[in-house]
Task: structure prediction
Amino acid sequence: MLLILDASTAIVDPACEVPTISIICDVKDPITGSPYSRDPRYVAKKAEAYLKKSGIGDISYWGPELEFFIFNSIRFDQNMHEGYYHIDSNEGIWNSGKDEEGGNLGYRIRTKEGYFPVPPTDSQQDLRSEMGLALMKSGIDIEVHHHEVATAGQAEFSMKFDSLVRMADKTLLYKYICKNVAIKKGYTVTFMPKPLFQDNGSGMHVHQSIWKDDKNLFYDAKGYGLISQFAKYYIGGLLHHSPALLAFVLPAPTLTADWFPAMKPPSTWSTRSVTAVPPSVSRSTLRARSQNVSNIAARTRPATPTWLIRLCSWPAWTALRIK
Result:
């Protein structure tokens, strides 16, 4: 395989002390020189091209919200005489009775009560802010960050929406930067779906919209919930094709590890808080959370995706919740 640099993605790598340029590449066949058919970035490019060719729309916008955990320690092993994992977090409710040097100062986050307290209960405000500054320095627009529902340092950033391939690239970078900022501060980050039993798992919403001639096709001033018939068909398409999509977005048994009753996310597909933005609102001012899209959150949980949606190995792809 040949890796062809995409110079438009070049950034100064925030994880390296020695100045280093980080660039995302496209994969090509070394014999024919044509794009590699299984390169997920190429698949996303074809999807964008197909949208235009179909005449349905000119561009689609995607606004993912990736949840993750920030831990102080993670140990695991599987060998001839034992198998275990051990996770620890200074925020974990299980440390509320721990005998600590200098005294236990409390302020542990109880299960399902992490959305979202202020310091000192939220002990990672500054750490997330550092992550956010590093993300913005790398060209990723961050709108908000906050503690998520679970105990033990669950977090989330909202990135401003962008086109499919560009947002997939940003999602890859998002995970990379969060992990590296954390490890420099003595923490470890995981995007796995269910690291803790009996508390919320992590997922990824993807807000979506399709535009044509500068018009938001999901919006209808007279429609139910301000969404158009087109948006309803879009939602129906996701639900109708969910069995096929799950072969890609849920490729491994571990992806279902967080499917427990009342543990968010749910074990079924759903749509939620359907909203739309009037056509008078400029694209540049739309927020990822309301994002002129019918806020479709088809919830599923991918195991360790590297690209944006669960449809590919790379984060760029779908309307599914993934992690």
